[in-house]
C-alpha cells in the first residue's frame, strides 16, 4: 500500500478521473477527502470508495466534501475541515475541470470565464489554500490536471487550452517555490480519456481521436489514476516540476 495513511484531498472526485483516483488512493491505503460540487454525487462516490477500501482491507477513512473550487471561502473551509479532522494534509489532487468549447470567433466571454475560473483559478485557490500547511509540515504533494491540450492546443478550446497551459506554468513555478520546502508539484497531461467530459463529443470525432492515438483507443480513467497514485507516493520522491503525458502516444 503505497499511500498508507496519507491524507489526500481530491477535487472533482465524484466521477470520471477524479473518482477513479479516489478509488485507487483508498486501495493504496490513503485516507481520502472526496470533494465535488453536488452533495448527492459526493455521497455516492464516498460510498463507492468505502466499499473499495473494505474490499482492499486498507482501513481507509473516506470523507465527502461539497466544494466549488471557484469559491475561495469554500476552498479555505474545506482545507480547514480536513486539518480539523486529520491534523495534516499530504496530497492535493487538483482534478476538477470543465470544458465549454467554441472556436475563437464564436467563444463568448461567459464561456471563456467559466473555464478559466474552474480550470485555472480553481487550481490556484486550492494550491494556495494548502501551501502553508505543506510547507509547515516540510512535506506534501500537489498534483495538477493538465492535458495534452495544454501541450499542443486544440481546435475549439481557446479557454481550455489557455487554462491547461497555465496549469503547467503553475506546476513549474510552484515546484521551484515549494521544492526547497519539501513539497513536490507535478502535472499529469492525459490524452483523451473515456469519462463524462467527452459526453458532448460526437462519435465521429471520437473515432478520429482513436485513429490519432498509436494505441488506437481512448484512455480509461484508471490509467490516469495509476499515474496520480505513483506521483503521490514516495516512489516518486525525486520527481518535481514535471508534466507526465498519459496519452497512448498521441503527441508522438
Ligand atoms: P468529468 O467531467 O468526468 O469530471 C469532472 C468533475 O469535476 C465532475 O465531477 C464535476 O462535478 C467536477 N467539477 C466541475 N467543476 C467543479 C468545481 N467548480 N468545483 C468542484 N468540482 C467541479 O471530467 P474528467 O474527464 O474526469 O476530467 C478530470 C480532469 O482531467 C479535468 O481537469 C479535465 O480537464 C482533465 N482531463 C480530462 C481528459 C479527458 O479526456 N477526460 C483529458 C485531459 C485532461
UniProtKB/TrEMBL annotation:
SUPFAM superfamilies: NAD(P)-binding Rossmann-fold domains (SSF51735)
SMART domains per the UniProt record, alphabetical: PKS_KR
UniProt domain Ketoreductase: residue ranges: 6-191
A GO molecular-function annotation: oxidoreductase activity
InterPro entries: KR_dom (IPR057326), NAD(P)-bd_dom_sf (IPR036291), Sc_DH/Rdtase_CS (IPR020904), SDR (IPR050259), SDR_fam (IPR002347)
GO BP, sorted A to Z: monocarboxylic acid metabolic process
UniProt-listed Gene3D superfamilies: NAD(P)-binding Rossmann-like Domain (3.40.50.720)
Keyword terms of this UniProt record: Oxidoreductase
Pfam families xref list: adh_short_C2
The keyword Transmembrane belongs to this UniProt entry's keyword annotation: no
Similarity remark: Belongs to the short-chain dehydrogenases/reductases (SDR) family.
NCBIfam families from the UniProt entry: PRK07231.1, PRK12826.1-2
The protein's name: 3-oxoacyl-ACP reductase FabG
Organism listed in the record: Aquariibacter albus
Lineage: Bacteria, Pseudomonadati, Pseudomonadota, Betaproteobacteria, Burkholderiales
Amino acid at each position: 500500500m503505497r499511500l498508507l495513511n496519507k491524507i489526500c484531498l481530491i477535487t472533482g472526485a465524484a466521477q470520471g478521473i477524479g473518482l477513479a483516483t479516489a478509488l485507487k488512493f483508498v486501495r493504496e491505503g490513503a485516507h481520502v477527502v472526496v470533494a465535488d460540487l453536488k452533495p448527492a454525487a459526493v455521497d455516492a462516490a464516498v460510498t463507492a470508495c468505502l466499499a473499495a477500501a473494505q474490499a482492499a482491507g486498507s482501513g481507509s477513512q473516506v470523507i465527502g466534501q461539497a466544494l466549488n473550487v471557484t469559491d475561495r471561502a469554500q476552498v479555505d473551509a474545506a482545507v480547514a475541515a480536513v486539518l480539523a479532522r486529520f491534523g495534516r494534509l499530504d496530497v492535493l489532487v487538483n482534478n476538477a475541470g470543465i470544458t465549454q468549447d467554441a472556436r475563437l470567433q464564436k467563444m463568448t466571454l461567459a464561456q471563456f470565464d467559466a473555464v478559466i475560473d474552474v480550470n485555472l483559478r480553481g487550481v490556484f485557490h486550492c494550491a494556495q489554500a494548502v501551501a502553508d500547511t505543506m510547507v509547515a509540515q516540510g512535506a506534501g504533494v500537489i498534483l495538477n490536471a493538465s492535458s495534452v491540450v495544454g501541450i499542443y492546443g486544440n481546435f475549439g478550446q481557446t479557454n481550455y487550452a489557455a487554462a491547461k497551459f497555465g496549469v503547467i506554468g503553475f506546476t513549474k513555478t510552484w515546484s521551484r517555490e515549494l521544492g526547497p520546502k519539501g513539497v513536490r508539484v507535478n502535472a499529469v497531461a492525459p490524452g483523451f480519456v473515456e469519462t463524462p467530459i467527452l459526453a458532448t463529443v460526437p462519435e465521429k470525432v471520437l473515432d478520429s481521436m482513436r485513429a490519432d492515438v498509436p494505441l488506437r483507443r481512448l484512455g480509461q480513467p484508471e490509467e490516469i489514476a495509476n499515474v496520480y497514485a505513483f506521483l503521490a507516493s514516495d516512489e516518486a520522491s525525486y520527481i518535481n516540476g514535471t508534466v507526465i503525458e498519459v496519452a497512448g502516444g498521441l503527441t508522438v
